């Protein structure tokens, strides 16, 4: 399978540069895992997108409340008998549940224009440099909080389609890396993945037995259990033909494209049908990627859910 180069779409980038000025001035990414469990309101983040609200959930894993932002489509409060699919959108490194909600804006705009049907979007709080994993020392139970607590909480408190065929996951950079690992680890939970420039390293190869401060600790099994490549092999029967996978990365995204290509090759090796895009000349630029893919951003998820419903015998 050859990557699809979206070079034609890149002709618009010269016109879009002013909108991406802040992207070019990004601060240095923080080092070391940390989290503010409930991100306070700040002028830095601006107003929440139309239809979005910031909420908290009591987390036993974290031992305190955890923040999340949820977008509800315009019809949610009107058609009170309808249930909606959910897209879980994971933020990148240095982000939080309030920051970088452009995907919610695009989702709302597309629903209004009838590009795609009404859907819910949830932005969990994944902290910084946690990679959406549980830390070995127990300080950052991010995976447990998200998988075991937040998803059931959303299904219990909102009118969701609480099944694989109504649940998708995506994210940019750290969020793409996290969503990719979570999909191959929990393939029964999701029917669709969109990894947006998410680094996919071979974690088991980075085992550090002499580094007590390593996020996954000193037990090599933690690295094996969190390696996306090994999880892919382990859960291949549940992934193949059941989880649709879309991966996109820029050809100039030097820090991510190597591992993204490696994972693409692994999917091909194991016969996992998927869609793979390399966007010509694009660096690690979230705003540009979203603008390029804007007209089709959620169509992949919509088709994934249609296929999953057919597979699950749901009309």
What report would you give on this structure?
This protein is α/β, with parallel strands linked by helices. The chain has one domain (4-10, 44-311): Alpha/Beta hydrolase fold, catalytic domain (Rossmann fold), CATH 3.40.50.1820. 31% of the residues lie in helices and 16% in strands. It has helices at residues 13-16, 21-24, 102-112, 142-157, 174-185, 220-225, 228-234, 236-239, 257-269, 286-293, 299-311, and strands at residues 4-5, 52-59, 64-71, 86-90, 120-124, 167-172, 192-196, 244-250, 275-279. A 9-stranded mixed beta sheet has the order 1-9-8-7-6-4-5-3-2, sandwiched between helices. α9 links the parallel β8 (244-250) and β9.
- CATH level 4 superfamily: Alpha/Beta hydrolase fold, catalytic domain
Seen as an oligomer or otherwise, the chain set is: single chain
CATH topology: Rossmann fold
Q: Architecture, CATH level 2?
A: 3-Layer(aba) Sandwich
Unreliable sequence segments: 1-27
Q: What distance lies between the first and last C-alpha atoms, to the nearest angstrom?
A: 33 Å
Please state the average pLDDT score.
91
Which strand order do you get reading across the main beta sheet? 1-9-8-7-6-4-5-3-2
- As a percent range, the share of helical residues equals 25-40%
Tally of domains = 1
Total number of β-strand segments? 9
- What class do helices, strands and sheet pairing give? alpha/beta
